Amino acid sequence: MALAPEKYYEARITLREDITDDLWRIRVNPGGEFRFVAGQYATLGSEVNGKMIERPYSIASSPYESEVEFFIELVRDGGFTPFLHELQTGADLKFRKIAKGRFTLDLKSGRKNHLLLSTVTGVAPFISYVRTLYLDWKKNAMPADLNVFMIQGASRSWEFGYQAEMAGVGAEAPWLKYVPTISRHWEDMAWAGETGRVEDVLRKYADQWNLSGKDTTAYLCGRPEMIENAAGILARRGWDKRAMQSEAYF
What we know:
By secondary structure, the protein is an alpha/beta fold. It has two domains: 5-96, Translation factors (Elongation Factor Tu (Ef-tu), domain 3), CATH 2.40.30; 113-248, Rossmann fold (3-Layer(aba) Sandwich), CATH 3.40.50. The protein has five helices and twelve strands. It has helices spanning 81-86, 124-138, 163-172, 198-208, 224-236; strands spanning 8-18, 23-29, 41-48, 51-58, 68-73, 92-96, 113-119, 147-154, 176-182, 194-195, 216-222, 244-248. It has a six-stranded antiparallel sheet with strand order 4-3-6-1-2-5. The longest helix has 15 residues, at 124-138. The model has no long low-confidence stretch (mean pLDDT 95).
């Protein structure tokens, strides 16, 4: 079925960066005005084997940036990412004109702390949060008394698409604490950082940072098993559903 042209821009990939064989970043010129809030997703589409297919992808860039960035993991038997994985700089895509999603920063509840838990490409909306807050902070326009605590998990350290950037912001900005952790440390012997799954180290850092469900909104993004396990840990520590948001990547 043909895509309605009034709903889509003709977009173009302006930059591609491979992180591993199955993880890569792209920057896209959407082809027209595209408004979104940090944490939302955009929908990309194209004709694949004679059929028009589209998929949603969380946005890693800030709304302040002119191009839209995505951090993508190859699903080898998927209906769209194998095609998308083949596209290089200069390739064209369909791009829905309207962003969607409610996985945005909670700035209305009064909870001053924001705990971000992710696996691999699930970090993308959190990158958008941090980039946006960082630019606001540099302009003295950031919401007052706001703190961000990020735990990012992967199997091995080379799967972190944004480790250097987040560590750099954390070293400069007093409002960001950033902890990357790997679960297959025996395959990455040079790694000197935290080890264990996100949910394995969650209790340690929630205690170290003195976080509770009364003053902290938790955001869980990535693989469903991490979300389920981490949500259970947080619930047992006093977080209720109103203080947790999640977005699962299957």
